Amino acid sequence: MLLSSDHAALKAEADRLKTVSIASLLEQDPGRVDALSLSAAGLQLDASKQLVDDSALRTLASAASGADLQGKYSQLISGAQVNITEERAALHTLLRGTAAEALPELTEVVNNTLQRMSDATHAVHSGAHTGATGKPFTDVINIGIGGSDLGPRMVCRALDSATPNLHTHFISNVDPHDLDVVTRGLNPETTLLIVCSKTFTTEETLTNAQRAKQWLLSGGVPEARIGQHVFAVTTNLTAAAAFGISADACFPMWDWVGGRYSVWSAIGLVIALGYGWSAFTGLLAGANALDEHAREVDPLKNLPMLMALLELWNTRYLGVETHVVLPYSQRLEHLSDFLQQLTMESNGKRVTLTGEEITEATAPVLWGSAGTIGQHSYYQLLHQGTRSFSADIILPLISGRGDLTARRGLAAHALSQSRALMVGRSPEAARQIGQSRGFNEQECHQFEIPGNHSHSLILMDAVSPECLGGLIAAYEHKTYFLAVLLGINAFDQWGVELGKEIATEIQPLLETGATVSAIDPATRQAALAWHEANMT
Ligand code: F6P
Questions:
Q1: Is 162 in a helix, a strand, or coil?
Q2: Residue of 126, 157, 475, 479 with fewest CB within 10 Å of its CB?
């Protein structure tokens, strides 16, 4: 956790820098871009457009040492019980082979599972494992929610190709429309399901799995052979068996992997089925490369550590409320959805590990969408609105091999937005535009664009499995390092659990229309309205 002396020093640095222009910092220091650029695992982070200078960076580095970020990283990867409220380790790094030598028993379990995933993938691709009627699989549907959906969904979209091994689909929402739309046009005889649920108790996933099973049956898959069409990924093998999924179709997960950190486990099986085993291992290799880089002790040379320090700086000291992620690649259109769970479920906390209330900002609200689409909607607020924000602009250097002119246009937009966020439009330039249009001095303010928005530019070598692995791991570690700086637990989610509990209480009310005294009158009224509309 941040030392109070570092906290005070950072406050003073922020007060000093609040009126400084990022553009002037760049102008004054010809070495700034090099000094604030870091490379790792196919990523290049350029933090030179962040509102920091040498003195602020030194203070951030001191905060990193004071909070012992490097020591906490060693604890994380070696299996310390970092998730104290659930009494668990958070060993997602082991899934990509990091610090495997320190954990031989768990490594064996992980490797056995990888072997089973590889075997299953090859059996499906080779046609050794077919559907019940002997036809090879053409489609795979991943059924899961939260961490059992967002990671694989994001990666599959990123690796999209015209000729996948299998076409990948995702069903997440318990709204029946989700399943109905996804299964429309698919052939049950050639469709494989993967039911992904760490707990195998998640109501949305189990409802969808039950409906998907019915869809297979009504589509001609004989009940006795339906097992050929269903895999499961879970820690709860008993519940999966009760659902009718045989042990050899179940891939294990472990309670020492958090849902939102689980894309590297068998939760990623859909990636291998869709884009090949080498795509999945490439993802793991990229993440492992980033894990190794994260051992770097100098916080200002450690890419995820610098990202975390800058998030702390922007959110807590510069008063930034939201963080917007702007990937300039349609392939990365689901990235911000994935990062929302990763960062907001992890660090959306209000007390420390020892239960003390945190009175200052913790995690920013994270949002965003693929550039350039947002440019024609919410960027106006970014440029001229009153809300403070920080941003990551992500530009893959190679984003597929599609039309070069269009890709060049995309890159131009990414770089121009990065520059516009920094330079804005000065009062003088605004006055010239306004006066040329006949506006008076006061009215000319409408053409001003303040700029000076702290943000990073992240270049990716390509949207390859390796670079994606590195990118996801970078955000994972940024999230953990921020949690350490804030002194919070990044690996529990009691707020989410509350919603699940109350939903269980409300279900019978919707079904029977009975009045339950423990439910408040407003919720009861809405529940009865739904009951009237649907059950009578
Ligand atoms: O959304 C809350 C959550 O508990 C996530 O942490 C998790 O990724 C998701 O539900 C799904 O849980 P499960 O994989 O157990 O179905």
A1: coil
A2: 126
